[in-house]
């Protein structure tokens, strides 16, 4: 019996037989994550088996969670490639009032499970590499970056790598969406496989070449049977990606390709996934082996067979699965697109820790900010209901003090998952938050950090003084998070009721400029278009802020740009003198030359 069965049987989900929009019928729950549930179902008219992701009831009305969920459907709805799981319908059932996503049901083992028994043969590796690279190339051509290419997210039906499929595009980012530094192993993307850009190097600019780097780490594991040790703290993640890892264990026939894929600088990697998909063995090596010209056909179901005799048996901790298995399907394979919701934190039950893992003694851990103060540990009381626990998790985030130039916002919170957005001038206090959160609450949070300049810190302190209550604060929507010099940044401001709205731009040099004169009224929102001009400088972070007040504050309407320290000090002072309540929101974008 699966260890997950008691959990699934006790979980109160949607009952079998429930129909969604008259199109699909639920057969059984096969998994549950921190923000959603996974069901096996079928199309009523045809009987076609489908997998159905459904947001939890407490998340159904969370705008941020819904946006993250909708993004997955939008990203892949029109992407048709045999190596990518098909996405069918995104809808909200009118009876349950819960959003759901219906997709192709793929029955098989994950590459992680297959590799737990040993490496792939060289023949299988080449076929797998071309299959996955071609699928990712199709996604990249549509501007979609997977950002979580790992063995957990490759499913192999019937053990045949020629039929492998890429799954879990839940954290896929359009190239128009921008990116941020990610803290902790609860983030969107498994830390052992993230690229240097995802760890904070090379301007944090995540592109298609980030997937190339992650695929290189995956191929190393598939060919050698053990993972490169690329995980650890935020400091270790960065340090391990400043150089090409040791590839001495890699077959010489493919080592030059992996060396290029694992270059720290994205500019030094292959130009596209197509180059990897079309890779050919060097002519000097083809007389030894050419998998594409093998005279003997390979029988279906044997593509994943291992190399005949591994040199040695690796330690147990190297083969403990890093993946959190959502549910066994019958007694056989797994539906691996339900492994981990990209922003949902751990899937129940939690993963077993790796055995015997050694720390990196030569790499010092980053020291937490001296002012970082976590609230007291909050072990869940016996029998605590999910709603009460969700409240405690939210309160923990809202009360956490990370010190100067540190602000965090609870984007999506449930009883066992937390998506947190943060602003700060350093990642050190966020490393401390990551450790404290896991220690005190028992699970990992997804913490996205947008790094600002020291000159912008007064704006971050201003955010902290006003708090993180999204319900009463304005919302800023931007058409992009990356603007070239001379281009126009457009967006809207919502959720301001009848309050006065001030639009502020805080440059990387710390100057605050009031741009409220650019606001144009609409039905439910104010719109704006800002022509970005910069005489000189490099890639730089910018903050766009909306401040709402019940009456005009002169301090917020400075006629000329003013230093952030003076500007926000005057705003707070005037608001306190006049007993005026302010609310604010901030959005981060980068101005590139």
Number of domains: 4
Given helix and strand content, the structural type is: alpha+beta
Mean pLDDT: 76
CATH topology of the largest domain: Transferase(Phosphotransferase), domain 1
Strand residues, percent: 15-25%
Stretches where pLDDT falls below 50 for ≥5 residues?
A: 1-11, 173-189, 283-379
C-alpha Rg (nearest Å): 25 Å
Main pleated-sheet profile? 6 strands, antiparallel
Overall CATH architecture of the largest domain: Orthogonal Bundle
Summed up, the helix count is: 14
Total beta strands = 25
Strand order of the largest sheet: 1-2-3-4-6-5
Detailed description of the structure:
The protein has helices spanning 5-10, 63-76, 111-115, 122-141, 208-224, 234-239, 255-261, 273-277, 283-286, 316-319, 386-399, 428-441, 457-466, 564-577; strands at residues 19-20, 24-32, 36-43, 49-55, 87-92, 99-104, 109-110, 144-145, 154-156, 165-166, 173-174, 181-183, 406-414, 417-424, 446-451, 475-478, 482-484, 488-494, 500-506, 511-514, 520-521, 526-531, 540-549, 562-563, 583-592. It is α+β, with helices and mostly antiparallel strands. The protein folds into four domains: 5-104, 2-Layer Sandwich (Phosphorylase Kinase, domain 1), CATH 3.30.200; 109-319, Transferase(Phosphotransferase) domain 1 (Transferase(Phosphotransferase), domain 1, Orthogonal Bundle); 386-451, 2-Layer Sandwich (Histidine-containing Protein, Chain: A), CATH 3.30.1340; 471-592, Immunoglobulin-like. It has a six-stranded antiparallel β-sheet, covered by helices on one side. A hairpin with an 8-residue loop joins strand 9 and strand 10. Helix 4 (122-141) runs antiparallel to helix 5 (208-224) and helix 13 (457-466) runs parallel beside helix 14. It is globular and about 75 Å long. Mean pLDDT is 76; it is low at 1-11, 173-189 and 283-379.
